[in-house]
Amino acid sequence: MKIKYLSKGQMARVKITVTLARNAPFLVLDEPLAGLDPPLVKERITKGIIQFIDLERQSLIITTHELLEVENLLDEVIVLKNGQVIAQEQVEAIREQASIHEWLKEIY
After folding, report:
1. Residue 29 and residue 31: Cα distance in Å, rounded?
2. 79, 47 in Cβ contact below 8 A?
3. Range of the domain at 88
4. Are residues 61 and 9 in the same domain?
5. Which of 11, 19, 56, 80 is the most buried (most CB within 10 A)?
6. CA torsion through residues 72, 94, 75, 32, sign
7. b/e 2-13 (16+ beta carbons within 10 angstroms → b)
8. 2: helix, strand or coil
């Protein structure tokens, strides 16, 4: 099957696989869970990302509108609004004060 005939979810899986297969110090995933259903698939994908990244040598940068879906992957959150950084915080520090969801509602 040619890549151009894949569904949105299948294409998302291919993109994640290709990204994780690279031997690069920085890996960038743009909306990695977009188009993936059901939630169980998203959970397996996030577990796969954790399993295959070499945290000793690599950093993972994720852009997403669905922060709660990737929360278990995060060490630090940077929030942008109109192209400007409006917040940057360690996830553990956020969790000491409130949930990620509540923190986002406060700052955004």
Report:
1. 6
2. no
3. 75-108
4. yes
5. 19
6. positive
7. eeeeeeebeebb
8. coil
Q: Mind listing the pLDDT tens digit for each residue in 62-87?
A: 998 888 888 888 899 999 999 999 99
What tokens appear for 5 in the block? 């005939």
For residue 70, being part of any structural domain is answered with no
Q: Exposed, middle or buried by CB within 10 Å (0-12, 13-18, 19+), for 106?
A: exposed
The reported pLDDT for the residue numbered 91 is: 93
Q: CB 45: neighbour CB atoms within 10 A?
A: 20
CB 60 within 8 A of CB 53: yes
Please provide the size of the chain in residues: 108
Name the pTM for this structure. 0.76
Dihedral angle over CA of 83, 76, 23, 10, nearest 10: -70
Answer yes or no: do 1 and 44 share one domain: yes
Please indicate whether residue 36 or residue 88 has the higher confidence score (pLDDT): 88
